[in-house]
């Protein structure tokens, strides 16, 4: 336990920030999974736009680094562009 009043306040603030950051990171991971588990390429592209928006917001808030966000964007775009054809073409 902290001895100083300022250290006590600092501890409360850091715990609030940790919980907030945890929420945002969890949300980010959930949306990334939604892109990867999309049924169709069109669905994946729609989710990709949402993920881009979320990643940009997290960078602006300082929760993740801009290079990490760029890496996620690049990998997800590559995944969507090479989206596997799950249903066979019928002639």
From TrEMBL:
InterPro entries tied to this protein: Ribosomal_bS20, Ribosomal_bS20_sf
Entry's Gene Ontology cellular component terms: cytosol; small ribosomal subunit
Keywords annotated in UniProt: Ribonucleoprotein, Ribosomal protein, RNA-binding, rRNA-binding
Pfam families assigned: Ribosomal_S20p
Bias type Basic residues, positions: 10-22
Region entry Disordered, spans: 1-22
Top-rank taxon: Bacteria
Molecular function via GO: small ribosomal subunit rRNA binding; structural constituent of ribosome
GO annotation (BP), single: translation
Homology family: Belongs to the bacterial ribosomal protein bS20 family.
Its biological purpose: Binds directly to 16S ribosomal RNA.
Alphabetized HAMAP family for the sequence: Ribosomal_bS20 (MF_00500)
Protein name listed in UniProt: Small ribosomal subunit protein bS20
Lineage: Bacteria, Pseudomonadati, Candidatus Kryptoniota, Candidatus Kryptobacter
Gene that this sequence comes from: rpsT
């Amino acid at each position: 336990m902290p001895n100083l009043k300022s250290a006590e306040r600092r501890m409360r603030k850091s715990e609030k920030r940790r919980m907030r950051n945890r929420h945002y990171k969890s949300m980010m991971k959930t949306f990334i999974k939604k892109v990867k588990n999309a049924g169709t390429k069109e669905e994946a592209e729609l989710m990709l736009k949402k993920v881009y928006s979320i990643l940009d917001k997290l960078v602006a808030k300082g929760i993740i680094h801009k290079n990490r966000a760029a890496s996620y964007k690049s990998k997800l775009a590559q995944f969507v562009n090479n989206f596997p054809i799950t249903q066979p073409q019928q002639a």
